[in-house]
Amino acid sequence: MNGTPSPHPQEVVRLDSVRKIYGGSRHHQVAALDGVSIGLHRGTFTAVMGPSGSGKSTFLHCAAGLDRPTSGSVQLDGVDLSPLKERELTQLRRERIGFIFQAFNLLPALSVLDNVTLPLRLAGRRPKKAAVNEVIERVGLADKRGSRPGELSGGQQQRVAIARALVTQPAVIFGDEPTGALDTYTAREVLTLLREAVQWGGQTIVMVTHDPVAASHADRVLFLADGRIVSHLDRPTADQVAERMTHLGAWGTESAAPAAQPGGWTHR
Ligand SMILES: Nc1ncnc2c1ncn2[C@@H]1O[C@H](COP(=O)(O)OP(=O)(O)OP(=O)(O)O)[C@@H](O)[C@H]1O
């Protein structure tokens, strides 16, 4: 699965001219992604925003190898996903990707410890006690190792999910509205943890969110409209993100604003 060396070694995720068309018959086709090209650098935190139906989930699913583009290519950690068979894709996801979902997706019958170590065991790797303990301590759950998810608050459950994502030391963690089910205070705690994982752990995180405050924790916010990246902001405040989202409603009807294509991060 190694293939030829990537021409963009600093990028952990790379999409080139990615289109995703849904719907069989010509008149019912939707371009959920309409020619997206972007590179996301290692050790960065990217938020993806946009109006409902703009293609955020599709972007995440294509970038994470959960869905295949209709055309274009996706590289993950230097691996071109297009030629991979389903089994190889599953293996790559297990080994190189962590996921954090809005609904936590923990196994209720398993303890915190067993939930956290599950991805390692699924990948046939023996959990190293010291490393696992370090991750559990890092998310502040050292005294909850033996608890079941049902005995934890929403914020604590999401911290278990973060530990589970971090434990395999994945090339990238994808978050789908990871703070969507949390109150403001707890959401901030979880976002701070994610920020720390990027800042101190060198983790790469890509997060879809509807929340300008959540997005303001990212290094870069990408804005999607009608399946295209139409704009970006670097280290923005929540107010700046909210303002851009307000404008996006208008851009959505005018189609993509070409002048607003992000530069810098090897986007083309
Ligand atoms: N499985 C599917 N079949 C048909 N159309 C789909 C499918 N999945 C998504 N779409 C369409 O593709 C477009 C983009 O959808 P997507 O879910 O990626 O948007 P989104 O920005 O994540 O939306 P939301 O914020 O509402 O979750 C929408 O028009 C949607 O209706």
UniProtKB/TrEMBL annotation:
Gene3D superfamilies: P-loop containing nucleotide triphosphate hydrolases. The keyword Thylakoid does not apply. SMART domains: AAA. Residues 249-268 are annotated as: Disordered. Keywords: ATP-binding, Nucleotide-binding, Transport. It comes from the Bacteria. Residues 13-251 form the ABC transporter domain. InterPro entries: AAA+_ATPase, ABC_transporter-like_ATP-bd, ABC_transporter-like_CS, ABC_transpr_LolD-like, MacB-like_ATP-bd, P-loop_NTPase. Coiled coil: none annotated. The keyword Nucleotide-binding applies. PANTHER family: ABC TRANSPORTER RELATED, IMPORT ATP-BINDING PROTEIN. This is ABC transporter.
